[in-house]
Design a protein that fits this description.
single chain; 316 residues; mainly alpha; binds 2-acetamido-2-deoxy-beta-D-glucopyranose; heme; glycoprotein; secreted; peroxidase activity
Length: 316
């Protein structure tokens, strides 16, 4: 009973916090915030189109670890270990440089006002829009954590060999349902993965298209080539569209954990079929799932802080 009450309180407080986020949070305190972010993201994506995927990935990896609190941006310190070297983040070429660049410009314009967590959330949205994807409702007012948790970052993310049931459970721990999970997986319509993450799949997996496997094998050998990258979506790697689901239907998902969404008889098959033929249904569900994800357990009010430098907590 006590545990049940605690759960209710925790859920109630996270909902209340998310409710505190509001779209015009910086209207008076930093009216330039949104244009600064969109201008810098636009330039960054024009220079390197993969940046859109990196920014989206960064926001996702921030939110799943203790909420959207910019904990992911913290470097290691003598008193805690950051999340950057957690195995799901290790060696990922994240778009941190874009986030830091935005922060520098925002601090020059409105010092001490805008959190790194809000920058991460808006940069993800602008990146997706820049490559043709949908927009979503996004509130602001997140504050930045004063700590990070590498152990939690090692624990919370899907594994490349996750089953559908595991994926559903992982997302459900964050308040996201199976439909949200399947829609959010569509983020793999952009971006790329390293050979080491799909090597087993292209040489030794069921439910794979043989011509797709042969193409991927050209640059991902059976042994070695770990860091060679391949696009998640071979057809339109730089456009945010519903091609990811069309690929799944053709057994051409890059990761094992992508293709399991379309395993024969699986719980997500009908939804994948729908998204593969109805891009606006995908966009609508993706947008609503992104709004939910960006509202995961934010720090608001007097919790946390507005970091001056996204990589280190403020001195007090
Ligand atoms: C970090 O996360 C782990 C679970 O992954 C938890 O057991 C631990 O208490 C957390 N540490 C802190 C300092 O919150
Ligand atoms: C997935 O791989 C990990 C090692 O990375 C292993 O511990 C786990 O048992 C695997 N799970 C499945 C379902 O194969
Ligand atoms: C990750 O980076 C380290 C160097 O920081 C390197 O030794 C290692 O091979 C890399 N791993 C992969 C899978 O690329
Ligand atoms: C394999 O991929 C090719 C090229 O996309 C496609 O024409 C074919 O129908 C696919 N095969 C299956 C079984 O999905």
């Amino acid at each position: 009973m006590a545990a049940f009450l605690v759960l209710i309180l925790v859920l109630a407080s996270s909902v209340a916090n998310a409710g505190n986020l509001c779209p015009n949070f910086y209207e008076n305190s930093c009216p330039q915030f949104e244009s600064i972010v969109s201008n810098i993201v636009k330039i960054a994506v024009a220079q390197e189109v993969r940046m859109a995927a990196k920014l989206l990935h960064l926001h996702f990896h921030d939110c799943f670890v203790n909420g959207c609190d910019a904990s992911i941006a913290l470097d290691d310190t003598p008193t805690f270990v950051g999340e950057k070297n957690a195995s799901p983040n290790h060696n990922l070429s994240f778009g941190f440089e874009v986030i830091y660049d935005i922060k520098t410009h925002v601090e020059a314009t409105c010092p001490g006002i805008v959190s790194c967590a809000d920058i991460l959330a808006l940069a993800a949205l602008d990146g997706v829009k820049e490559v043709g994807g949908p927009s979503w409702n996004l509130g602001f007012g997140r504050r930045d954590a004063r700590t990070a948790n590498k152990t939690e970052a090692e624990r919370v993310f899907p594994k490349i060999n996750s089953t559908v049931a595991e994926l559903i459970a992982i997302f459900s721990q964050q308040g996201l349902n199976a439909r949200d999970m399947t829609a959010l997986s569509g983020a793999h319509t952009i971006g790329a993965a390293r050979c080491i993450t799909f090597q087993k799949r292209i040489y030794n997996d069921k439910n794979i298209n043989s011509s797709f496997a042969a193409t991927r094998q050209e640059t991902c050998p059976r042994i070695g080539g770990n860091s060679n990258i391949a696009p998640f979506d071979m057809q339109t790697p730089d456009i945010f569209d519903n091609q990811y689901y069309k690929n799944l239907v053709l057994q051409s998902g890059l990761l094992h954990s992508d293709q399991v969404l379309y395993d024969k008889g699986g719980s997500q098959v009908a939804l994948v079929n729908k998204y593969s033929t109805d891009q606006s249904a995908f966009f609508a569900d993706f947008a609503s799932a992104m709004t939910k994800m960006s509202n995961i357990r934010p720090l608001t009010g007097n919790d946390g802080e507005i970091r001056t430098d996204c990589t280190i907590i403020n001195k007090i």
